[in-house]
Design brief:
7-stranded mixed beta sheet; 9 strands
Length: 232
Amino acid sequence: MLERSRLATIGKKVFSRWLGARRYPQNGLELACLLKRLDIQDERVLAAIADVPRDQFVSEDLQWLAWHNEPLPIGCGQTISQPFIVAYMSQMLELEESQNVLEIGTGSGYQTAVLSQLCRHVSTIERYPDLYRMAVARFAQLGLENISAKIGDGYEGWPENAPYDRIIITAAAPEVPKELIGQLKMGGRMLLPLGERPVDQFLTLFERTESGQGMKTLLPVRFVPMVKGKVL
């Protein structure tokens, strides 16, 4: 009788071939082509998706699924977002090469890496030390030098590097964090999931303008909750 580990390996190979036959993306370029068909039109975002190796941001046993348009677990009860959401959020930020970006929730670092291809600098905050260490190691391995990362409380932001042209939050908050509004430049954009329950979450675009503050609801999403404090 085959050992369980061998059975699992054989099962993965068979399933992978079956998925490939169904034309699932097998690399970054194919993933970018799929996202373009899903109405991601920003060519710079598509180029970043094609260039950033998503398979390097998941554990080795999940790398065979890395190019599929689906979220995957990364530990600490967190996930790497599905590529469509990463691309859509990046597109809605309307990033320019000269801009300074704050990201709340580093996670695997995949979204961070995509953003780093689109702007001058990314400051990213993670509350889980294990995720932070793995993400920083990936940034170094890939030679991404325009990223600053730290362990901290996302609700407090990173005032030392403010103000920011754009802020992106990758966890659901019940309301727009007031501390982060103060770190956003006039004319800046903040993108975040709003909603206390998963069934009530909507990706929301917040804009700070001279005449006040504007908010636009974009699409329903499901993110882990944004939690105050950091994990020691």
